[in-house]
Each structure stands twice: as structure tokens, then as C-alpha cells.
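tool=predict chain=A
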Amino acid sequence: MKLPITITQVAQQPKILPLNKIIKSSDFTIKQLNPNTVISKEDENIRPTEVGTIVDYLSRYVLLADAHAFDVAKAKAKQDLIHGIIPVKEYKKLLDQEERLGYLVKDLSDVDSLSDEAIYLATDICAWEDAFRSGRYVKPKVHPDKLTTEHIKMMIQRVEEFFEEFGWPIRDAFFAKTENGFVSGDGDYLLKHTLLDLKVSVQTTMQISWVRQLLLYYTLGFYNHFNKEDIERLMIFNARTNTVFFIDIANIDQSVFEFVYDAAEKQSKINERELRKYIN
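tool=predict ok
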């Protein structure tokens, strides 16, 4: 059964949020940061989604000293342990890897000093993060080579420089959901009055799925008062292209948020009904 349960999945469904009912990609202001270069994925030796996850979670762990960055990965591994899918030694290995990673980044002077071993460990840990999203753990067959490792460090450096220019996060995670919880998602970052989603994509323009994501995170996380922060701006930072896309909430018609809210709640009720039928 393929139901759009997560905000990311709903954002990929134009029938739920059609273009004529929401804002356009072209409504966003674009700011190109320096260096004005795209970090190519062509010669990287692991999947782009893996690179993106590693950049995101090492940014949290290294730049923000977030001790909870890998909590989702550990929760998935513990769940598999409880259900007898993995042995105790596999779960203990994950805990040891995080402890070792913490030691390696503890006194890091800058991102360039991030060791190959740290990125190797992050690759293993982030495989459990991917498992949480997909439902199944797949052990990494390869680890980042020299070029891919350099790309990862370059993008983490870009994230750091972005934060220095636009402000450091006041929260590095937030939750958004419908009333019954059958559409939900974890947002990336909250800067002061800004909802930020981090991308690691070769796409050089604002994608409509990103627009839908931002609208859903804001509507289901703040417009509905689920979170209490005052959000004045929606923003994307793409670390591969070093590009920022943003729009002020004041420049979006209220009817857009009302439509997104109603559409998400409608889909959420469909999800609940279909899942209950499937379970029964």
C-alpha cells in the first residue's frame, strides 16, 4: 500500500497540492553565495542520497554539537534489536561507532580537519538513519572515497558559512503533523524567525517539490500552532550549488496556507481510513 504518509511524500504529489493553488518557484528570491560553483555528483562513489544524509547529520553533529543528531538511527537499530532482526553485537557496534565519532570530532578546529575515519563512521551510522526512513537497514557496501570525502567536507563548510551569514539555528529539528498524525514530518532547522530546509542537490533552480515541502512544514508546524515559534520566512539552502532561495510569509496570500492545511488534513483522513481498513 503506497500512501503519502510523510511530508516529503505528500510534496511529491501534485494532485494533492496543484500548482494553481500554491505559490510558484519563481516567487522565491534567489541569493547565490560564493564560491559560485556546483559540487558535481558524477564521480562520487556513493549514492547522492547517502551524501546528503551524511552532510546533514555531520553538520548537526560537528557544527552544532548536537548530541542527539543520531537518535533516530539508534532508535531504528534498537527497534530491530527488540524484534530479533539484528543481534546484540550489531547494536553495540553502532553505539561504539557513535562514541568513537564523538571522540574524533570533540576538539575539531575546523571542518577541513574532519578525518576520513569520522566520515567512514558517519556513513555506517547514517545507514541506520536511512533505514528509519525506508523501513529496512542496508549495510553500506562502500564508503566515501577521497573525492567524495572532499565533497562532503566542502559542503559541510558551506553549511557553516551559510549559518555565519544568515544566523545559527535556534533549533536543529522540529516536528510538523496533521491533527490525527497520519501526515507528518521532521523539519531541518529553525533560524530566528526562519524555517530552513537543507538540500544537497545538483538542481540549480527552486524545485516545486521543495516549495510544497516548505508550505507543508510551515502549515503543519506553525500555521496550526503546533510549534510556538514566530516564523516570518521560508528558506532553502542547497549546499551543492551554494544557493539560497527564500520568501517572506507576508508575501504569501493567507488562502494558500488555508488550502495547504485543508488538503493535508483531507489526505491525512484518507491515510487513516485506508490504514485501518488494511489492518482490519
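DSSP finds eight helices and seven strands in the chain. The two ends are 14 Å apart (CA to CA).
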